[in-house]
Every structure is written in structure tokens, then in C-alpha cells.
Specification:
Layout lengths: L1 E8 L3 H8 L3 H8 L8 E6 L6 E7 L3 E2 L3 E10 L9 E9 L5 E9 L4 H32 L1 H4 L1
Antiparallel strand pairs: 1-7, 2-3, 3-5, 4-5, 5-6, 6-7
Length: about 150
């Protein structure tokens, strides 16, 4: 299943890209976890009774002239067989006029076979979308106000 969400940062691409590649400490504080490129990050997604801790594995960034892609995977800790594993890309892209887009696009396979696919269509896809939105919104806030989040 495909999920995506994006937000905008009112800062030039070069500044946002540099911040994205150096926000380990900021994400650590935000997520109460250790974080480094190539290592895992424990984060909370969702809310209330459906909140779940996931492991986020960040890969080597792919840098271009006007965009940078940060490949990642995330999956549930504790009971991974009951939650989907997602492969995604977090992209920052120059939109001109000191505006940068932050986008997460990913694919996941619902767990539990055909039962999981039915549940995903009924309700779980909305949880996946809400989780992606929450994550992107958090990243946008950090990249928009780096001085306030460090």
C-alpha cells in the first residue's frame, strides 16, 4: 500500500538540506531516543490506544542539485508480525523563493495476509496515513525552527 504526505518549510533549500543532514540531536530530543544516520531511532507514532513504538532505520542520503532523498525503513518493535514494515523516502526539494518541500513517500504490505488487507482497507490505512502525517509534520517543525528545537 502506498502512503505519502508533504509539508512546506519557508527556508531556502540549502539551509533545509543541511539541517536535515545534521538533525540527529534534535530528533533525539524530539523522540527521546538516540539517532544517527545508518542507525535506528525509536519514535512514537499514532496516539492513544493505538500508539506504537517503531524502529526507524535511515540510509545514506542521495543528494542532487535541487533535492535530497533520505531512504528509510520503519517497523514496529515488540510485535512486528502484527504491524506493517514500510520502506520510504524522505525528500527535501527546492521549490524556489526560499520555499522547500518535505515529502515522505512509502510502501508497506499489511500484515496477516488477506485478513490484514481487509483490515487495512477498512481502517488501518488511515492509521498509516496519520502516522506518516505526524512524522512529516514533526520533521517540518524541526526544519522550520531549528534554533527552537535544539
Amino acid at each position: 500500500m502506498f502512503v505519502q504526505y508533504y509539508g512546506m518549510v519557508e527556508r531556502p533549500f540549502a539551509e533545509v538540506e543541511a539541517e536535515l543532514l545534521s538533525i540527529g540531536d534534535t530528533l533525539t530530543a524530539s523522540a527521546d531516543s538516540a539517532y544517527r544516520l545508518g542507525e535506528g531511532l525509536l519514535i512514537k507514532i499514532g496516539g492513544g490506544a493505538v500508539a506504537k513504538t517503531v524502529l526507524l532505520d535511515l540510509r545514506t542520503p542521495v543528494r542532487g542539485a535541487s533535492s535530497t532523498i533520505l531512504p528509510l525503513e520503519w517497523w514496529a518493535t515488540g510485535t512486528p508480525a502484527l504491524f506493517p514494515k514500510m520502506e520510504a523516502e524522505l525528500t527535501v526539494a527546492d521549490m524556489g523563493n526560499s520555499l522547500t518541500q518535505v515529502q515522505l513517500q512509502g510502501n508497506y504490505q499489511p500484515p496477516l495476509g488477506s485478513v490484514g488487507r481487509i483490515l487495512d482497507r477498512a481502517v488501518l490505512h488511515r492509521f498509516a496515513e496519520a502516522s506518516v502525517k505526524d512524522f512529516v509534520d514533526r520533521v517540518v517543525t524541526i526544519l522550520s525552527h531549528p534554533d527552537q528545537t535544539r
